[in-house]
Amino acid sequence: MRIDVVSIFPEYLAPLELSLIGKARQDGLLELNVHDLRDFTTDRHRTVDDTPYGGGAGMVMKPEPWAQALAAVAAATPDSAEAGPAAAGSGPAKPVLIVPSPAGERFTQAAAQELAGEDRLVFACGRYEGIDERVMEWAAEHFTVRPMSLGDYVLNGGEVAVLAMVEAIGRLLPGVVGNPESLVEESHSDGLLEYPVYTKPSSWRDRDVPAVLLSGNHGKIAQWRRHEQYRRTAERRPDLLEEFDAAKLPRADRTAFADLGYDVVDGHLSRRADAGGDSA
Ligand code: ADE
User: Fold this and answer.
1) Is the CB of residue 123 less than 8 Å from the CB of residue 3?
2) Which of 30, 86, 172, 243 has the most CB atoms around it within 10 Å of its CB?
3) Taking the model in full, what pTM does it have?
């Protein structure tokens, strides 16, 4: 995969040289280029922003430097240009242009999974009040444009969001995480939160590791872990259970959900009206 990031603060992306993502770059599993938007300006002051039409607070990013930068990035050829699914048939697919924004669609594990299957991603980091909207319309000719939000809060710009998204996507690329098993049993991979984990010593400051984990009974351990996932998800993220496919749950799991105040109705979990707690 090739990733390009365009930003007025290229130094912000320096952490992508570290740890697993840095190693993936060194190993040639991921090609990542960071571009300074100001290199695509033409005036002496390297201006990237201007006042908003219609008035209001703050500044808006000017369209032309973005068009210049994105056109240059779109024209660049990845080091790993040959085959790949996108190159088959009617020529290479358009790169995906991800525009981090609190006004975007939610970036989820499912989105990370989907984007990890692309050959080329480009991230456009907006600052100030955002990028002139006409850039998105123009860019749609060259890219599949996807404004994406990390969550319902406002950051100062797209860079921190890009750090998070590139890490979430990059770790799903083949060979990046040493043991691919660890990608299977983690929060959100199956629509649930992960079960709690423990290591040695088995007793620490008067607190014991749950006995089942020391039993050697792998069936019982797997069941305990699943039930802990249900308990945690019900407690912390009951919204996730609305999407959970409960049609094929074994009887013991239905009982576990019943204990948490949920019945299975038409293959979905339904919170009993008389269930305690404050989760809706
Ligand atoms: N830029 C500013 N806030 C953001 C958010 N919540 N997600 C993604 N990009 C952003």
Assistant:
1) yes
2) 30
3) 0.91
